[in-house]
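Need tokens for this chain, all 291 residues.
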Amino acid sequence: MLRKFFVATGVLACGAAIVLSQNTSPITGQWTLGGPPVGDITEGMVRLTIQRTSATSNMNSSSPVAVNQLRGLTRGQLDSSGVVARFELPRDAGTFRFEGYLQHGSGGGTFTFSPNPNFAAEMGALGFSGLTDEKTFMMAVHDVSAAWVREMNALGIRPESSDQLITMRIHNVTVEYIKDFRALGYSNLTPDRLVTMRIHGVTPDFARDLKANGYTDVSPDQMVTMRIHGASLAFIKDVAALGYSHPSIDQLVTMRIHGVTPDYIRKTRSLGMGTLTIDQLVSLRIHGIVE
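Here are the structure tokens for all 291 residues:
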């Protein structure tokens, strides 16, 4: 579920954050809605795509949304042979109002976005002042809410900017994700680190499996490096089956970087080289002695 984009400005008066709208016209765009051809769509959900072109950017955001969140949209309308539809998606930052046409589970049309007049002040009280309507729109697209920010703060996760909030939501840094890692003993989690972990597929299950296989002190950064280079649990088990019990994380990553695969190890043995050390295998690979 990737999403994007940002901007911001504001003023302070009488000690309170006063947000000046930079928009003189409504925020509008196009929408499309489809069924579940993508793996992360489950029953009762649809894929909603919001597109908008402005003077400074082109935005296209697609994500799964529960049908029951789309106020005024019925299952009958979705499954119809053709119907004009009007429905809304309320978010903390504002409300999307959709108009268009639906047929056989998909459709499209235009939308108008109305900012929540209380949202900017609430976010200002949380330390994120100066939100323009454009920034508020992007926060609504990615469902950044004041409640979510407060939950992050309660977990000790304090993003530095509204852009960082949006990036965290784009990459699905959830409260549950953080709590799972905290339960595994990880406390040195920052917004940037969490986003990087999400981007590279570092999951609580991956960390849990590493611990179960004797890797009890692997840092988040090491797990990211492992994921980048394909040092998976399957790889660890394959090399263990060949007699390399519990290589270090650095050794596993180095093997992957230089292409020391289980097949490569078997090839060196078939050439009569016996059981070489990991360093010897890497050296053979680096110098092209055994291709």
